[in-house]
Amino acid sequence: MKKSLLALAVLSAVAGAASAQTSVVIFGNIGGSVRHIEDAPTGSTKNSMANASNYQTNSFGFRGVEDLGSGMNAHFVLDTTFVSGTGSQALPTSLFDRQALVGVTTQYGTIDLGRVFGPQFYAAISYDPFDTHYTGVDPITRNSISASQASDNTASSNSRTDNAINYTNKFGDLTVRAEYAFGEQANSANNGSTKAVGAVYQTPTMTLGAAYTKKKLRADYSTPLYGNDAYTPAQAATGAGFKDADYYTAGGSYTFGPLRASVGYAHEDRKTNAADHVERNLWTGLRYNLMPTVQLVGGYFKTNISSNAGSSRKDMFVVSAAYLLSKRTTLFVEMDHANFHGPQLPIDALGQFAPSVPPTASFSQLKNGTMIGMNHNF
Hints:
- It is a single chain.
- The protein is mostly beta strands.
- The chain has a single domain (about 30-375), classed as Porin.
- It is built from three helices and 17 strands.
- It has helices spanning about 1-20, 120-125, 235, and strands at about 20-40, 45-50, 60-70, 70-80, 100-105, 110-115, 160-170, 175-180, 195-200, 205-220, 240-255, 260-270, 275-290, 295-305, 310-325, 330-340, 365-375.
- A 16-stranded antiparallel β-barrel has the order 1-3-4-5-6-7-8-9-10-11-12-13-14-15-16-17.
- The longest helix has 19 residues, at about 1-20.
- The relative contact order is 0.14.
């Protein structure tokens, strides 16, 4: 009897210890804002919540970690986005469109499997003047690192990749990442695939980052699937073929007391059936912490697109102010001015290049936008 009670006590203690070493948390963000857009050449205006771009992406997710001992852990992340104005899912075709991964961490690094953020995302946001805020306006974070958004079917489009294996390791102040994503195409292990590497060196005052991504993409721009630029068997059967898309980015930031200066560059080279497509993005910005609760940011973004169809250019200026009511709640106001020139692409309601609309013969157009809102993290 005593032995049985002792065994039961030991088992209870072990179960309690195992339970204490496992944690699952709910996390997310919700923001609401109103955006006003003025089209300078025509004088038209637009006020909207549906097209407003918030301080951060509205998201909701679960994150779990299990301590396996000896410095090892198993973990998972399930993360989805939603529209705060309607409560609807941001991407109806994908339940966890931001992340859906399971992984393990050891002394040799971390391996994650599933839908993940790629190395180009972590590199570019390390020198984003706006720290991934104002998604949809900030060209760096709008559908990730393609400042022109000339097409979703590019090496830089969408910061997340489906069917991926990601490796991450940290060596002091240096973090390195590598990624391989399966293309999931019949009769080819290469078509639709993604290969990427990246590194970020970060100290309390300085950040340096760089990344390179190669994708084997469809050679036309017809209806890429969200996330990994892969295609259904029916789409792949059209015979468009697959060609290379190469992307690289590099940049850095430096902090002088309350002031941080950032600069970055991104280059995209995309081969298509019609013509090669080259996109160059340059940005710089300043962030100033006026006081612990007030942050001011300004940034300049320049985009050049060229192909056989001609060339286009966008110059964009963005300024913002954020007031922290608490560690979780922020009030913000943002203003932007964009100037577009060239024959290739029109612009959408957010003042970005819009690949879904047929190109015009030529245009020279201004867009002015203002946004005000509130954001809460949980």
